[in-house]
């Protein structure tokens, strides 16, 4: 017996809520990146679940594009974190408000 699509959607909603809570409550830039990754993975689960439900490969194709986007986001995010650490000695994102003009 196959797993119903609702189970995948509940799992995805849970992951997305955990990621959103991580973004809203943390000050550490690394935790921001991990929370965004959780939210992107929740979207990937939705894409693949709907692809399975409708019986086509479109959702899996979008999931691959989302993984490529996540890899690019991590590469840029790590660079930003390194600049934060080099300038402030910490990865606290509230210190970065001093970088405004």
UniProtKB/TrEMBL annotation:
Q: Which residues form the signal peptide?
A: none
Task: Specify whether Transmembrane helix is a keyword of the entry.
Answer: yes
Any one cellular-component term (Gene Ontology): membrane
Q: Which UniProt keywords apply?
A: Membrane, Oxidoreductase, Transmembrane, Transmembrane helix, Transport
- Enzyme class, one word? oxidoreductase
Per UniProt, subcellular location reads as:
Membrane
Q: Name one GO molecular function term.
A: NADH dehydrogenase (quinone) (non-electrogenic) activity
Q: Which InterPro entries match?
A: NADH_UbQ_OxRdtase_chain4L/K, NUOK/Mnh_C1-like
- E.C. no: 1.6.5.9
Membrane topology recorded in Swiss-Prot or TrEMBL: Multi-pass membrane protein
Which spans are transmembrane here? Answer: 6-24, 36-55, 61-85
Respond yes or no to whether keyword Zinc-finger is given for this record.
Answer: no
Family label? Belongs to the complex I subunit 4L family.
Q: What is this protein called?
A: NADH-quinone oxidoreductase subunit NuoK
* Species the sequence originates in: Halorubellus litoreus
Tell me what gene encodes this: nuoK
């Amino acid at each position: 017996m196959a797993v119903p699509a609702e189970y995948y959607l509940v799992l995805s909603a849970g992951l997305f809520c955990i990621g959103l809570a991580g973004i809203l409550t943390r000050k550490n830039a690394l935790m921001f990146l991990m929370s965004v990754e959780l939210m992107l993975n929740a979207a990937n689960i939705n894409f693949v679940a709907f692809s399975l439900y409708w019986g086509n490969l479109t959702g899996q194709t979008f999931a691959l594009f989302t993984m490529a986007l996540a890899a690019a986001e991590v590469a840029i995010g790590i660079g930003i974190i390194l600049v934060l650490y080099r300038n402030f000695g910490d990865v606290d994102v509230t210190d970065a408000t001093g970088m405004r003009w």
